[in-house]
Amino acid sequence: MKENENYVAIYSRKSKFTGKGESIGNQIELCKEYIQTHYAEIPKDHILVYEDEGFSGGNLNRPGFKKMMEAARERKFKAIIVYRLDRISRNISDFSNLIEELSRLDIAFTSIREQFDTGTPMGRAMMYIASVFSQLERETIAERIRDNMHELAKTGRWLGGTTPTGYASESVQKVTIDGKAKKACKLKLIPEEAEIIKLIFDLYIEYDSLTATESELMKRGIKTKNNKHFTRFSIKSILQNPVYMTADETAYDYLVKENTDLNSDKKDFDGIHGIMAYNRTRQEKGKTATYLPPDEWIVAVGLHPGIIPGKIWISVQDSLNRNKSKAYRKPRNNEALLTGLLYCTCGNRMYPKISKRKTANGKPIYTYVCKLKERSKRTLCNSKNANGNTLDVAVIEQIKLLEDDKGSFIDQLEQSRKFYTRNRAVYEEQLASMRRDKSDIERKIERLVDSLAELSDSIAKNHVAKRIEQLNQESVEIASRIHEMEGLTSQHDLSDIEFDVMRQLLSVFKDSIDEMTVEQKRSAIRTLVRKVVWDGVNAHIILFGAQDDDIEYPPLSQLSNETNAAEDDFEELERFSDVDYEDDDDILTKTHRGEDSK
């Protein structure tokens, strides 16, 4: 008997969490009942369950589904059972390819709701027919959504959610033809924030650079609504948002030329109001939202005042597209050993960049640069750069010295393990509690945002708006604490095997490090070193088992500071091609409701 003959798989999917109807749990239980009836020989512990909650059936990009297909290709089961056909996919092409692959793998597929079984020719034929109707339903829903968006676009209203900088959401009441009062929202201008928007456009036009604009905003101390520094990504998002563009004749010509789905007449472009553009993004769960081209936008003149004249907004788009298309020569791969480990005393990471100079033996010289210093053009941090070649050598030499004092280092590791193992449960409980608090706050914010549309009293609305801001700040603070706690547990949760590796590594590090490849050296250093802090003159190694301020290690030798600091600090540097220089920037990963809503 084949190894997989005694196993079957259940797959369940639901687009949105709910405890009712065809929930994940209900689907699984119904499939198990089916297996008991039709696969009585299968033991209960031989039923493999794969599930995806919160994922659309529009494509197969789902973690549970991918895991199931990997198991199928390894022939770990003989059949897949689903509650309903569209739990697998609503796309005909995806579905037909899946059935063909399962057929090649000799794995049956059964949908208990439609009573289809690919083990029979009629079952396969009926399944294909059903998948056609499933996709038709999906396309009908999509068409209905687009029709609704057209109707919304005609109103020029704001759909709620996080408002763009420069505006606040304001409730308006209208009386329909049949005499009924309806409430909706529009954007209300915030003059002081509108001035920031104008400044951002002016600075970008002056410098023709997102980086230079970011630095100038930092120098002037101008921050976002959440009291954070503007990043290049948030600046670009503002520059690209048509909500700021004044609906004038130039804007009309541009939107017509770009083939947008325009729902306002030319006479509506009065040079006063702004633009509402719906369907600007496409988002898949787990992926960063992607911006759609103008020919997929649904556009209308909004009820809000515009801030940036059409001619200026359009010229900025041309500049962004031009800068994006410039050829960029990527430098060589990263050879810096302390990437991800090195921090400036200001608290920010330091990243390696390559210079045009070379060492005496002909190797390129690379330099570690503080990210905050670079972003703020030395206004918020002015620590000297660190010569990467010599700093890496100094760190290796310092670690080699640990071999001579191995006992004290192992004692630190043992103390660290006992401490963090004992407190692991406490950390996990604290993390779970903070995540619950964050979810509760987000739900409160959503309810308050929805309630704004129902409030006509301006005093009550102001109180609600202030409460939303307070809750948002609390959410940001909790998210920061969660990030810190997760980092703490991941940095110190060392297994027995990892401790043994450390012990062994200390014994061989001194003799073998010089023969290792760059990647091997980098991994070896990370096994022993938690972080390295550069104070502008010296670097300090912090090992696993020690807190940042628990123990002081002697500074590295002046070897790390031998090069001409002034020359390092002002020379032209290039990025390595394989370093993520944006790993701690605020990047939009989810789309809020509003003009981008689908």
From TrEMBL:
All residue ranges annotated as the Recombinase domain in the record: 164-326
Residues annotated as domain Resolvase/invertase-type recombinase catalytic: 7-156
Coiled-coil parts of chain: 410-458
Record-linked Pfam families: Recombinase (PF07508), Resolvase (PF00239), Zn_ribbon_recom (PF13408)
SUPFAM superfamilies according to UniProt: Resolvase-like (SSF53041)
Record-linked InterPro entries: DNA_bind_recomb_sf, DNA_bind_recombinase_dom, Resolv_N, Resolvase-like_N_sf, SSR_resolvase, Zn_ribbon_recom_dom
Molecular function GO terms recorded: DNA binding; DNA strand exchange activity
Keywords: Coiled coil
Protein name listed in UniProt: Site-specific DNA recombinase
